Amino acid sequence: MNRNRIENVMKRTDCDALLISDPIAICYLTGARLYPGERFLALLLKKNEAPKLFLNTLFPLKPIEGLETVSYSDGDDITKLVSEHVSRDDVLGVDKDLRARFLLPMIKARIAKEFTDGSLPVDKTRAVKDEKELELMRTSSRINDAAMERFKGLVYEGVEEQEIAAQMLDIYKELGAQAYSFPPIVAFGKNAADPHHMPDDTKLKAGDAVLFDVGCVYEGYCSDMTRTFFFKKGPNEIQRKVYELVRKANEDAAATVKEGVRLCDIDKTARDVIEQGGYGKYFTHRLGHFIGIEDHEYGDVSASFKDLTEENNIFSIEPGIYDPETLGCRIEDLVVVTKDGCEILNRYPHDIEIIG
Amino acid sequence: MNRNRIENVMKRTDCDALLISDPIAICYLTGARLYPGERFLALLLKKNEAPKLFLNTLFPLKPIEGLETVSYSDGDDITKLVSEHVSRDDVLGVDKDLRARFLLPMIKARIAKEFTDGSLPVDKTRAVKDEKELELMRTSSRINDAAMERFKGLVYEGVEEQEIAAQMLDIYKELGAQAYSFPPIVAFGKNAADPHHMPDDTKLKAGDAVLFDVGCVYEGYCSDMTRTFFFKKGPNEIQRKVYELVRKANEDAAATVKEGVRLCDIDKTARDVIEQGGYGKYFTHRLGHFIGIEDHEYGDVSASFKDLTEENNIFSIEPGIYDPETLGCRIEDLVVVTKDGCEILNRYPHDIEIIG
After folding, report:
1. Euclidean distance between the first and the last CA atom of chain B, given in angstroms as a whole number
2. A contacts of B306 (beta carbons < 8 Å)
3. CATH number for region A3-126
4. Which of A164, A230, B130, B264 has the highest Cβ tally under 10 A?
5. Residue B224: CB partners within 8 Å, gap ≥ 6?
6. CB atoms closer than 10 angstroms to residue A307
7. Is the CB of B94 less than 8 angstroms away from the CB of A103?
8. Phi first, then psi: what are they for A46, rounded to 5°?
9. What residues of chain B lie within 8 A of the CB of A116, using their CB?
10. Is A200 helix (H, G, I), strand (E, B) or coil?
């Protein structure tokens, strides 16, 4: 149980009760790791009451101090079960991912006065990392920095993208991580101009850009970084210009990050740099995304996301230019918002680097 | 587009419109393979109207004859979009898995007169396989039979369960399948008495039971079979009795299968055999589950599932006895319901077999 996190959630909501069904959110708030598949699992939070976990008896759980478990069996009436713990006068905030098969019968039985999407307070609490999470995020990115150094050593003339990708998980594990945070992107040459390219049998040749967009999970927390190298030969003049634009977009955006700025304005700083350089139409995605237990969490660094940063938010800054005729290039770091600036979690340098 | 399947769905529902959001069901009905993650995807079915697919512009789809696509972009109002195609007088059946974040705003905006769980007609249609599906299910199980023959050859004194499991996918691929239908169960000795044992570092020794519960995916369709062998030494007298009870439970149950019988009665036939043999308390799970595109689909062969079989239903018959002191044993086949009996998809024999 993490009482602080639960308190922070309840501070952020006007609902009388919250019914959280996302297993990751439940683990974040209680420490209970449960993945009951099709079966109903939910955490009920009410002000001044102990949290209650609705759990099928098929899934054993060691007692967690302060958490009450409401057990049920296959065939039991879920609506009735929940109704016994919710008042008909309550405004009930339900998980944004609660499924119709559970929600519709609750609405029909009018177990609460009003039903509303109750996920935002949980998502916004998750977006503010506590000390323990900050340490894990730092370690995860430190491993990612070390891994990037190792990945460079895998390149040689004629190697396929997928051959390199296939070796990355073992390297992460040697460095102390447990898993990928997402399937790694390895892109050579023109493939680097596709932001979501999946590693294939493309062979590496001199002069190619080599883009690695990679991350690992360390004790439940994700890293995510991109670097773009050049194989054997340095960039030509125009490629150098593109690379430096992306680098400037990354660094100028990071320089604007601090508590209380609009996330859309951070995006705009990076976008303005690239637009003024004449490559605006080749920067085709948002500047970044929030990250933590999941690689993509609630929160965007994009033109449409007007929220203010909060201290200890963590998100990516990942401008890119994707011009198949010239260069595909992205430089991505994770940053932690501080009171008067930011801590950049990735230490791998931004300089143009020729590898191989 | 599969007009027959869509017609069969609409025959089974009283709703004016169905809003299907499960990507597998959408693929089954239209042929469109789309996995848009967090973004809204839904197929709207109405009697006497062309099916409409709500799809984010980020996901390209080749035109499908007879299917109308309603495109939207990130930031568009999903509720408004859907409301333009649903009448406020409609009873709208929504997917059992439709998420609260999409469903609640539709209910609040009263885009339909009534909202109800509309998945059953789709699930029941999927449970009746058409000719093309029957052929794919047959091939998938034929590959599984051949694979079982190969898996036997992997055993030797001291081999670990996980070492055998690690070789199975390559064998399936050599035989023409594309993937596992579920992670294979390999269980030696006492481990076979745990119905959901995951392969670990247990080493094989003479006299052990060797249980393989395995299946593959062939062109989108699943197989699933279990056999229990003995390594080096045959079963002792009491083990033989247990094995033969399980075999009789399997074969007696299969003999009762035909169109129009209650699924709970098929379960009872197998359960009675094992109970009369004195091992009732060691048969701890339902007799079987429906199967097709997914390894576990809607429909049970269990005491609580009173539905009648329909022609071309496919489900597993998998009685087991799990007595850690004596033997863990399960024998599982897939069967297709016919008008006056059943077609057993697995041809691998049920006889006691000593391997290694």
Report:
1. 49
2. none
3. 3.40.350.10
4. A230
5. B144, B181, B182, B213, B214, B215, B291, B295, B316, B332, B334
6. 14
7. no
8. -135, 145
9. 104
10. coil
Q: Give the Cα separation of A332 and B123 in Å (integer).
A: 44
Q: What residues have CB less than 8 Å from B132, skipping those under 6 apart?
A: none
Determine whether A286 is exposed, middle or buried from the number of CB atoms within 10 Å of its CB (0-12, 13-18, 19+).
Answer: buried
Which residue matches tokens 């048969």? B283
Report B:249-268 residues touching A (Cβ under 8 A).
Answer: none
Asked if A98 lies within 8 A of B99 by C-beta distance, the reply is yes
B95 in A contact zone (CB under 8 Å) = yes
Cβ–Cβ under 8 Å, residues A353 and A211: no
| Other Cβ atoms within 10 Å of B323 Cβ, number | 17
* CA angle A114–A119–A120, rounded 5-degree value: 105
Model pTM score: 0.86
* Residues whose CB is less than 8 angstroms from the CB of residue B209 and which lie 6 or more positions away in sequence, other chains included: B187, B188, B189, B192, B228, B229, B230, B231, B235, B239, B327, B328, B329
Q: Touching check for A101 and chain B: CB below 8 Å?
A: yes
**B304 contacts chain A (CB < 8 A):** yes
Interface check for A200 against chain B (CB to CB < 8 A): the answer is no
Does domain B3-125 fall into CATH 3.40.350.10? yes
pLDDT band at A36 (very low <50, low <70, confident <90, very high): confident
On chain A, the residues whose CB falls within 8 A of the CB of B304 are 74-75
Name the residue in chain A with its Cα closest to that of B115: A104
- Interchain contact A100–B (C-beta under 8 A): yes
The 3-state DSSP class for residue A314 equals strand
* pLDDT of amino acid A327: 97
Which positions in chain B touch A297 (Cβ < 8 Å)? none
List beta partners, residue A305.
none
- pLDDT tens for residues B113-159? 999 999 999 999 999 999 999 999 999 999 999 999 999 999 999 99
The third-level CATH classification (topology) of the domain covering A131-355 is Creatine Amidinohydrolase (3.90.230)
Question: Residue B100 and residue A98: Cβ atoms within 8 Å?
Answer: yes
With a CB cutoff of 8 Å and minimum separation 6, the contacts of A92 are A15, A16, A17, A18, A19, A86, A106, A111, A112, A113, A114, A115, A116, A118
- Could you tell me the CA-to-CA distances from B181 to A20, B144, B293 in Å, in that order? 31, 11, 9
Cβ contact, residue pair A100, B96, below 8 Å: yes
pLDDT for B233-270, tens place per residue? 999 999 999 999 999 999 999 999 999 999 999 999 99
User: Where are chain A's structural domains?
Assistant: 3-126, 131-355
Q: Are B285 and B316 in contact (CB under 8 A)?
A: no
- Chain A residue closest to B96 (CA)? A101
B-contacting residues in A 143-182 (Cβ below 8 Å) = none
The one-letter amino acid code at B52 reads K
Residue B94 C-alpha, separation from nearest chain A C-alpha, in angstroms = 7
